[in-house]
Automatic annotation (TrEMBL):
It comes from the Eukaryota. The central subunit of the protein translocation channel SecYE. Consists of two halves formed by TMs 1-5 and 6-10. These two domains form a lateral gate at the front which open onto the bilayer between TMs 2 and 7, and are clamped together by SecE at the back. The channel is closed by both a pore ring composed of hydrophobic SecY resides and a short helix (helix 2A) on the extracellular side of the membrane which forms a plug. It comes from Chondrus crispus. It is a multi-pass membrane protein. One of its GO terms (cellular component) is membrane. Component of the plastid Sec protein translocase complex, which is composed of at least SecY, SecE and SecG. It holds the Pfam family SecY. HAMAP family: SecY. Keywords: Membrane, Plastid, Protein transport, Translocation, Transmembrane, Transmembrane helix, Transport. The lineage of its organism: Eukaryota, Rhodophyta, Florideophyceae, Rhodymeniophycidae, Gigartinales. GO terms for biological process: protein transport. This is Protein translocase subunit SecY.
């Protein structure tokens, strides 16, 4: 009974926080011609990409327009500099809970700085759509958006600590889900304007297949069997439950996020310059040109390797195995284990990134064949996020229920 009550409390805290975070997006900043701004930003690729994470906040410019974006940027920066600066790496690994709290505090400070920078950039970006643009509006916009971003960061921490699931991930999940009805309505309208029921059924089957492949990629893993010191010489008695799980897509959705953001820049840069050379160079990387797909594939592979190196370090795994008195069968501890793990990781990362690129192509191919653009509204990046967050949240709920059952049995 106690576990059920606690689970209900966690669920209510999570849902209540998500609802408040969603409502704040629709509270507009005063002094902006929102109708004109919304109509002009509708076809902006970069804004459309940022709206995935802000739930349409960059199109409405509400008080929560920045959403969780500054916090995500700060978290990524912290992951990078932690690997670069030895003091921060030692703080994270050796200081335990106190070290993690210090890292969290630094991330919060970076979020504030990042929110101020983005708020200032937005204040100047929306100048053509402001009724009375002056220093007072800039200060008002900066304070409003920055405060909104810090509140969203606080909401994400509340969900992570007192609710269910990972706060930042659930906020992004909510923002993506909120845009699905609009995409579905537009796509249904386009279909019924000239498509048949057979085509609708065909697209539904394809969508289910994409979903299945996405789940397989998210959950696919290579199990590296390990053996303890007391089992040496008894290979036939290896425990199948003793293994190191190396995921096929170790870096998750981040390579797609980075690659999509980079590919959204050329169309945006064309709006900032009239130079003919820059225009021709940027135009080569538009979706309909031959350099678009090779560059997209290269970026996905590059970011996959980069982000995998941040998440998983073979040297750390080898050290931990040595401390536990365990090893990989037929592989010597130390440098040989590191080399072996690196080979496995490189192969898995390459395969995972190629699979990501292949499934990224499917919606575009369907859109071309069906002669509709609406299908692209719910891209593979969004689908991967939805699948990943759903699986992780479901696992956390399941783990929480099991742990509470054990507690009840002990009591």
């Amino acid at each position: 009974m106690k576990s059920t009550i606690k689970l209900k409390q966690k669920t209510l805290i999570t849902l209540g926080t998500l609802i408040i975070a969603r409502l704040g997006i629709f509270i507009p900043i005063p002094g902006i011609d929102h109708n004109s701004f919304y109509s002009n930003m509708g076809q902006n690729g970069l804004v459309s990409f940022l709206n995935i994470f802000s739930g349409g906040g960059f199109s409405t410019i509400g008080i929560f327009a920045l959403g969780i974006v500054p916090y995500i940027n700060s978290s990524i920066i912290m992951q990078i500099i932690t690997k670069i600066i030895p003091e921060l790496e030692n703080l994270q690994k050796e200081e335990g809970e106190l070290g993690r709290q210090k890292i969290t505090q630094i991330t919060r400070s970076l979020t504030l700085i990042w929110a101020i920078l983005q708020s200032t950039a937005i204040a100047f970006w929306i100048k053509p759509y402001v009724f009375n643009w002056n220093k007072y509006f800039i200060i008002d916009c900066l304070l409003t958006l920055t405060t909104g971003s810090i509140i969203i960061m606080w909401f994400s921490e509340i969900i992570t600590e007192y609710g269910i699931g990972n706060g930042p991930s659930l906020l992004i999940f909510q923002n993506i889900v909120s845009g699905i009805p609009k995409v579905f309505m537009e796509y249904t309208t386009n279909i019924y304007n000239g498509k048949t029921t057979i085509n609708i059924f065909f697209l539904l089957i394809l969508f289910i297949l994409i979903l299945i492949v996405t789940i397989l990629i998210q959950e696919g893993q290579r199990k590296i069997t390990i053996i303890s010191a007391r089992q040496l010489g008894k290979i036939q008695e290896l425990n199948p439950q003793s293994y190191i799980p190396l995921k096929l897509n170790q870096s998750g959705v981040m390579p797609l996020v980075f690659a999509s953001a980079a590919m959204a820049l050329p169309p945006y840069l064309l709006q900032l310059t009239s130079n003919n050379t820059i225009y021709q160079l940027c135009y080569l990387f538009f979706p309909n040109n031959y350099l678009y797909l090779p560059l997209y594939c290269f970026l996905i592979i590059t970011f996959s390797y980069f982000y995998s190196s941040l998440i998983l370090n073979p040297e750390d795994i080898a050290k931990n195995l040595k401390k536990m008195g365990s090893s990989i069968p037929s592989i010597r501890p130390g440098i040989d284990t590191v080399i072996y793990l690196k080979k496995i990781l490189y192969k898995l990362t390459f395969l995972g990134s190629i699979f990501l690129f292949i499934i990224v192509l499917v919606p575009s191919i369907i859109s071309i064949v069906m002669k509709t653009e609406s299908f692209k509204g719910l891209g593979i990046t969004s689908l991967l996020i939805l699948v990943g967050v759903s699986i992780d949240t479901a696992k956390q709920i399941q783990t929480y229920i099991i742990s509470q059952q054990y507690d009840n049995i002990i009591e």
